[in-house]
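re: ur question from yesterday

yeah so i grabbed the chain u mentioned. its 284 aa long if i counted rite. heres the sequnce exactly as i have it in my notes:
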Amino acid sequence: MATANDVKNQLAQKASGGVQKQVSPEKTLNALLKKMGPEIQRALPKHMDADRIARIALTAVRNTPKLLDCDQTSFLAAIMQSAQLGVEPNTGLGQAYLIPYGKNVQFQLGYKGLIDLAVRSGQYKAIYAHEVYSNDEFEFQYGLNKDLIHKPSTTPVGEPIGYYAVYHLKNGGYDFVYWTKERIDQHAQKFSQAVQKGWTSPWKTNFDAMAKKTVLKEVLKYAPKSIELQKTIDADSTIKNDFAADMSEIIDVTDYSVVDEQQEAQQPNQDEKMPGQVFDDKLV
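ran it thru and got these structure tokens back, copy pasting raw so excuse formatting
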């Protein structure tokens, strides 16, 4: 299968002389969508159309041009996953990210996207995550009577000392999880290849967002969830190499991997082999 880079090179060729010229992301993307059109169309659910796919893809490549250098199937599969979930990738909304990693594109939910999908499931009255600062009024207890009190300071001092996530169900149930910053750091060091190897990733550029996503996934572990929401959480941070009417069901065991969220990813050394299996915990 030709790669997106092959398509770009073909588009860049002049009719004579074979000299390359600059091709806009829009033209390159249009060529990709046209080339992969039949495969995409077969996988599109009834509520989606090619125009929506094109709009999401164009927004993503404008914000992250490196996506066009990746394998075209993994790129368009990630676009399909975003479209099916109704989240906008690689925008200021922070709902989701399409991340160039090696030769593939990884789809990953942001913590805001995770909240949106949980609320849309219809079971939650509220779900949220916050950081805690040293001069906040904060206390919590587990046990038979769980309780959490947080009165944020009007002027936070220093860096956050911890993070918590809370959900309230429509039937009145609730739960929460609190992790110290040290525990978040230990989690990232243990499960994130980006942190272990010192690569640029949101663990460096947006630590708070990654920490909130971590505690949100932790509190949702045992929360009531629809089948669709559980499948979405399970499919987070994966690379897909096929199309389907339900992208969350696709797991290619030969290429399946879970990697760290890297909106501005620093790529591994070309001499290093990509891990063949899961190497990042799904809480990341």
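noticed a couple things. The chain is about 40% helix and 15% strand. also The beta strands are 96-101, 104-109, 124-132, 137-141, 147-151, 162-169, 174-180.
anyway ttyl
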